[in-house]
Design a protein that fits this description.
Blueprint: H1 2-20, E1 65-67, E2 73-78, E3 82-84, E4 87-96, E5 99-107, H2 113-133, H3 145-161
Antiparallel strand pairs: 1-2, 2-4, 3-4, 4-5
């Protein structure tokens, strides 16, 4: 009888301890930068947002020319806005000499600390892999699957606009 009472008391104490345990919310490291949210175009497709004026005259829609360090003209192309369950993903690529030289996120999911961690950890890995592959055929990052898929979708749209 004594063992049964002791077992019940210890079980109750254990359950109370588990239920009263407080977890702290997931937060980003101090000094974490956030990307500004840009408005989504009404059509939701590729948006022509030139970053510099083009002197070539025949620049495709959604592209702009800007001189690069090598003296060759570089152009930027915006991918479509890919809607994910956690928010929109949109990229801008810079193309020089027929190669993607830079990928800049215009929109990324925001709102939670986890989104910030994904933005800071997974997006640079996706960018590095995409620059190495020179295509949207990249592997998804574990824990950031939706963002990875949105990244690849927007990247493919930008690559298509650049005819790459």
């Amino acid at each position: 009888m004594r063992r049964a009472v002791l077992a019940l008391v210890l079980t109750a104490v254990g359950i109370i301890a588990m239920l009263s345990y407080k977890t702290r919310p997931l937060t980003a490291p101090l000094g974490a930068a956030r990307l500004p949210t840009t408005p989504t175009p009404a059509g939701g497709g590729a948006s022509p947002t030139p970053s510099a004026s083009s002197s070539t005259g025949g620049a495709p829609a959604g592209a702009s020319a800007a001189p690069s360090a090598a003296g060759a003209a570089s152009r930027t192309y915006d991918g479509s806005v890919a809607q994910t369950p956690f928010g929109p993903v949109q990229l801008r690529i810079t193309v020089a000499g027929g190669k993607v030289t830079a990928i800049t996120p215009l929109q990324l999911p925001q709102g939670t600390g986890y989104d910030m961690q994904v933005d800071q950890i997974a997006v640079p890995q996706l960018t590095q892999e995409a620059l190495a592959a020179q295509s949207a055929n990249i592997s998804a990052i574990s824990g950031a699957t939706y963002t990875s898929n949105g990244y690849a979708t927007s990247l493919q749209a930008a690559l298509s606009a650049a005819h790459l």
